[in-house]
Structure to design on (294 residues):
């Protein structure tokens, strides 16, 4: 939490981050936002002074970027996220066990090191979340209890954030999306699940997930790939337009052949992606990490 002492000169040796005027203004609002929410953590980062704490600078700048630099809107979204995290307790979900019969094989996180990175993000891991909807064995079991599904989906995201490790960030970000290495690739595989478009439970769960993520995980998406896309995508894009900004929608890529995904990354990740997606790496069951199951 920010304090008055942070307005004094910083001891030699502490990192100094040059703050833009909007970032300075948002930082000044943080203590009040934290006090109102009774919560000071976002994405594993305990909010502090962005001048000397790069992870805090990254978090606050992402909220500004999500709102095109509008401090009031960024503060409002930040407040809502703090309140949501205080209630949802997403970090606790990392220790929760979910039903294997409902969620086993449905979601994975993988992380790769760039083989030929030539930019300031050279050391940043390339984190992927994978949603394999063809593994759903019962629509009612997986999607029927909305709070349980949202908890599982949030747990998957928090697992990815652990791999992204913003809490140890050393490179500040700017208002330029191109200079933000702290982002996640998302892959949604819809192979063999065209029947889901008939389910009201799936539509409700999808809509709520999009809403929750748009509000509480801004500027964390690098690119999203929809693989083996069936007719359900017409509904999905309709929902996406309601909650997701145009600049984010441009990052969405439908692909009819999931086996060709590795071609999108081969130039700088080589053949690291799982073999079922055109790479030469280990399959998801071997290489991927899942939320806790029992």
């Amino acid at each position: 939490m920010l304090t008055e002492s942070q307005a004094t000169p910083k001891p030699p040796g502490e990192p100094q981050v040059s703050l833009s005027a909007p970032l300075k203004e948002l930082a000044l609002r943080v203590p009040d936002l934290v006090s109102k929410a009774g919560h000071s953590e976002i994405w594993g980062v305990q909010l502090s002074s962005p001048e000397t704490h790069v992870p805090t600078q990254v978090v606050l700048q992402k909220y500004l970027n999500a709102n095109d630099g509008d401090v009031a809107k960024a503060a409002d979204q930040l407040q809502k996220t703090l309140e949501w995290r205080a209630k949802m307790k997403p970090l606790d979900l990392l220790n929760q066990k979910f039903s294997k019969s409902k969620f086993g094989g449905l979601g994975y996180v993988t992380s790769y090191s760039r083989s030929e990175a030539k930019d300031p993000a050279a050391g940043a891991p390339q984190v992927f979340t994978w949603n394999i909807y063809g593994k759903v064995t019962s629509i009612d079991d997986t999607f029927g209890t909305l709070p349980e599904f949202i908890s599982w989906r949030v747990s998957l995201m928090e697992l990815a954030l652990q791999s992204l490790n913003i809490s140890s960030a050393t490179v500040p970000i700017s208002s330029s999306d191109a200079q933000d290495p702290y982002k996640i690739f998302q892959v949604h595989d819809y192979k063999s699940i065209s029947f889901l478009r008939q389910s009201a439970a799936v539509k409700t769960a999808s809509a709520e997930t999009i809403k929750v993520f748009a509000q509480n995980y801004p500027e964390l998406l690098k690119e999203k790939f929809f693989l083996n896309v069936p007719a359900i995508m017409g509904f999905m894009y309709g929902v996406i337009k309601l909650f997701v900004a145009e600049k984010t929608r441009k990052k969405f890529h439908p692909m009819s052949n999931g086996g060709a995904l590795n071609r999108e990354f081969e130039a700088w990740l080589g053949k690291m992606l799982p073999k079922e997606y055109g790479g030469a790496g280990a399959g998801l069951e071997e290489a991927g990490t899942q939320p806790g199951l029992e």
Summary: Strands lie at 41-42, 45-46, 107-112, 126-132, 184-189, 221-227, 252-255. Residues 146-164 form the longest helix (19 residues). The radius of gyration is 19 Å.
